[in-house]
Automatic annotation (TrEMBL):
Belongs to the N(4)/N(6)-methyltransferase family. Its EC number is 2.1.1.72. InterPro entries: D12N6_MeTrfase_N, DNA_Adenine_Mtase, DNA_methylase_A-5, DNA_methylase_N6_adenine_CS, SAM-dependent_MTases_sf, T1MK-like_N_sf. It catalyses: a 2'-deoxyadenosine in DNA + S-adenosyl-L-methionine = an N(6)-methyl-2'-deoxyadenosine in DNA + S-adenosyl-L-homocysteine + H(+). This is site-specific DNA-methyltransferase (adenine-specific). GO terms for molecular function: DNA binding; N-methyltransferase activity; site-specific DNA-methyltransferase (adenine-specific) activity.
Length: 483
């Protein structure tokens, strides 16, 4: 049912002139889904209040309730077409009344960690791109038919939403910034092994894939009410700079079952890392920060190692956001292991001396769709310097691409071998004492790989060619003598 609903919506949106690409599609379906989810949440809270014999004050009231403007019903449960807005009337209501009303929730909320504040932020950051009220009416009717009542239903919706996020990433441009392959995320989570009661942080949250997968990892049927409350309110924390990614991240977490996600819309790198206090730190950091971008000089002043490379700034941020004894897994481009510029060398030195960089996962080309550089995953703990590093070179045995992406089976061996740090054809250990004291070079050089045949010098090649020419001349002379 849900797959058919999403396909119908997609067909409608292709005819909407205000929606041009996959990014627009995910953005626009997000705000409509969000309001439908809020309607279901309100119904659930109202029923709970009735059972407990207490009054319930709705979050969204009056004409702005879903049942008033989006899906007014007759007594038999069918849509009341006479009172349902459509056409220009619907577009004008959404643009001029609904969005401004919802945006005010941000200033009216008592604190950021509330669903009211999230509503205000979402509708402050985006706008409706629907130009046809008839298409919007069709979309509203389809989404009104979706149910959020059971965990199974929410799971199916979240899976379909994830599919759309992945397609948005594959569409290229900045969409790819919001999507990290879920098999890689799950492997990172299995290695860091978060526990109930620990906090998990992503300072470059994007579509919140790390936080959603960590929630799925920790959510178990036997959780107590107190543990469930901890998961809901005091476990997952994120920050995201870009408006679209922020909206998608909020919606993704909501669909996975987190009612009021602790994601803040802010540029993480504007925080001075020297001002980070113990209360700001976390037990687990899981992240894939953007790389290749540039930050302004005033932002670079917030870091001891100053550079315009965003990935390097994020890595410094993560090192300082980690609690003593905390664990981190961070995706970063592989050149951070070998570049010889001052910032790269200083960053490797800081990481090795302030943290235990125990594992480097070398990912193959094509792990990230459309990425022009290779990536590695750095696994490190806070509190003790590095003694030795276990490298694992991931080799799925095939060319990676859009039609042949990374899957969970590709990472089973890595996760298993990580426990014992076993060495073999694809894994090896580098001791801290063997590193170059001047450069701290951590280049991925598999000592177990078959040695490539040494290339011959130009002089040797020319000498061989001349020798063959002389041999050929002798043969031709002999043949001439036989004639």
């Amino acid at each position: 049912m849900y797959e058919n609903a999403f396909n119908r919506i997609e067909k409608d949106l292709r005819a909407e002139e205000g929606i041009a690409n996959e990014l627009d599609y995910v953005e626009q379906i997000s705000w409509v889904l969000f309001l439908r989810y809020l309607d279901a949440l309100e119904a659930e809270r109202r029923d709970r209040a009735e059972l407990e014999d207490r009054e319930y004050t709705p979050i969204i009231g009056g004409i702005f309730r879903w049942s008033e403007w989006a899906a007014p019903k007759l007594d038999d449960g069918t849509l009341d077409h006479n009172s349902a807005r459509t056409g220009e009337d619907l577009v004008r209501f959404v643009d001029e009344q609904l969005f401004p009303y919802l945006a005010k929730f941000k200033s009216a909320a008592t604190r950021p960690k509330t669903i009211e504040y999230k509503i205000g932020e979402v509708f402050t950051e985006l706008r409706s791109k629907f130009r046809s009220g008839y298409i919007l009416r069709d979309v509203l009717e389809v989404i009104d038919g979706l149910s959020f009542n059971t965990q199974a239903q929410r799971h199916e919706l979240s899976e379909l939403y994830e599919t759309r996020i992945r397609r948005m990433g594959n569409a290229g441009r900045n969409g790819g910034e919001y999507y990290t392959p879920r098999p890689l995320i799950r492997a990172m989570i299995r290695v860091t092994d978060p526990k109930i009661g620990e906090t998990i942080y992503d300072g470059a949250a994007g579509s919140a894939g790390f936080l959603c997968e960590a929630f799925e990892h920790l959510r178990q049927p036997q959780l107590s009410a107190a543990e469930w409350e901890t998961l809901q309110t005091a476990t997952f924390y994120g920050q995201e700079k870009k408006s679209l990614a922020y909206i998608i991240g909020i919606m993704n977490m909501v669909l996975h079952g987190i009612e009021a996600p602790n994601i803040i819309h802010t540029n993480t790198l504007t925080e001075n890392v020297m001002d980070i206090q113990e209360r700001d730190r976390h037990d687990i950091i899981l992240a894939n920060p953007p790389f290749g971008g540039g930050e302004r000089k005033e932002v670079q002043q917030n870091f001891p190692i100053r550079t315009g490379e965003t990935a390097y700034l994020f890595l410094q941020h993560f090192i300082r956001k980690l609690k003593a004894g905390g664990r981190a897994a961070v995706v970063i481009k592989n050149t951070v292991l070998s570049n010889t510029d001052n910032a790269s060398v200083a960053l490797r030195k800081e990481l090795i001396e302030s943290c235990n960089l125990h594992t480097v996962l070398d990912c193959p080309q094509g792990t990230f769709q459309g990425a022009g550089v290779k990536t590695v995953v750095l696994f490190f703990d806070k509190g003790a310097p590095t003694r030795d590093i276990w490298f694992y070179q991931l080799d799925p045995g095939r060319s990676m691409g859009k039609t042949n992406p990374l899957n969970d089976a590709d990472l089973v061996e890595f996760v298993e071998l990580h426990r014992t740090r076993e060495t073999g054809p694809k894994s090896w250990i580098v001791n801290r004492t063997d590193l170059d004291a001047a450069t701290f070079d951590l280049s991925v050089k598999n000592p177990n790989a078959p040695e490539a045949e040494a290339l011959r010098s130009p002089e040797e090649i020319i000498a061989d060619m001349l020798a063959r020419d002389a041999e050929t001349a002798d043969i031709l002379e002999n043949i001439r003598g036989m004639l």
